[in-house]
C-alpha cells in the first residue's frame, strides 16, 4: 500500500491514541489490577492453519514447509506451535472445498451433528478439527489459531478479528502494526478487518480457538504462489509469535487503540432475470480495497459502458473487491467503516 495511506493511517492512530480515555477503559474491567493491566492466562498452545481453502497456496505451502522442517522458524520458548493442514482433500485437488465451504461450518449445531453417509466432507472435517483444537468455547480449546488465507483482491496483509472485546488479539494486531522498527511490515500497513456483526459474521475454522486470528494476504490468484505475498504472510506469523512469546515471558502491554475496518454490508453484482451478472467491478474501484468510496463514485460498469454509482450517504471502505471465491456467494465486495478498537492493558497472570 502506498505512503499516502500509511501516513493517513498513522496520524489517525495517533489522534485516537492521544484521546484515549483511561477511565472508560478501567470501567470495562472488573479484573483490572492497581497498575491498570488486566491479567490474562498465558497463550501456550498455538496452531497455524493452512489450506482451510485448498487453492489459497501461501498457507498451504508454509504449513507443508513447517511440517517438514521441524518448525525452527515457528518455534518459541514456552510455546507449543502446531502447523496443520485444515482441508487436505481440497488441497490435494487445489480447489476451495469439496462439498461446502469449511470456513462457514463451525456453528455449534454442525459440530454436534451425528455423522451420516451424506454428511458433507467439510462438516466431518470440522468435527475432527473441533476435537483436536477445541471443543469450541471450552477451557480445553487451543489458545490461538492463525488461519492463513489468500485473496484475489488487493487487500495487502490484512488481519481478521472476530471480536471487539478480545484484548489479546487487539494487542497483537497493535504490535504487528506499529512496533519497532516502524511496524513489522513497514512500509506497508496492516489493515485490521473486524467481522463482528449480528448477521454477517460467519462461523470460521479458527473460531474453535480462544483467540481466532485470520491472516488474509493478496492479491494472489487462487492456485498460484507469489514469493512477495508468501513473504508478507510469513512475517505476520513470525511477529505474531514474537508477541505471544513476549507476553508469556511477562512483558506488560499498555492500553492501546488501533484503527479497524468493521464489516457493515455485503454488496452483490447487478443481476439480470436469470440471475446472471450484468456488470463488472468498475475500473475505478478495482484494486482500491481500503480506499475511501464516496457517495456518487462508480462501482460497476455495464457491457454498454454505463457506470453504476455508489448511492449510499456516507463514505465507506471497500474490501474483498472482486474476490474470485465470492462470485458463488453473490458478493462483489464488502463495505466497511473505520472504527477505533481499544484494548485494555494486558499482562500474563502468574498463577
Ligand atoms: C477469500 C477468502 O477465503 N476469505 C476468507 C476470509 C476469512 O477467513 O474470514 C473467507 O471467506 O473465508
Ligand atoms: Zn480463504
TrEMBL record:
Assigned keywords, A-Z? Cytoplasm, Hydrolase, Metal-binding, Nucleus, Zinc
NCBIfam families reported in the protein's UniProt record: PRK02259.1
The organism encoding this protein is Pogona vitticeps (central bearded dragon)
Identify its protein family: Belongs to the AspA/AstE family. Aspartoacylase subfamily.
Succinylglutamate desuccinylase/Aspartoacylase catalytic domain span: 43-244
The family database entries (InterPro entries) matched by this protein are listed as: AspA/AstE_fam (IPR050178), Aspartoacylase (IPR016708), AstE_AspA_cat (IPR055438), Aste_AspA_hybrid_dom (IPR007036)
Record keyword Transit peptide present: no
Compartments (UniProt record):
Cytoplasm; Nucleus
- List the gene name: ASPA
Q: Does the keyword Zinc apply?
A: yes
EC numbers on record: 3.5.1.15
Q: Name one Pfam family in it.
A: AstE_AspA_hybrid
Q: What is this protein called?
A: Aspartoacylase
Q: What is its main location?
A: cytoplasm
Cofactor(s) recorded for this entry are:
Zn(2+)
Q: Which residues form the signal peptide?
A: none
**Which residue intervals define the domain AstE/AspA barrel-sandwich hybrid in the entry?**
257-336
Top enzyme class of this protein?
A: hydrolase
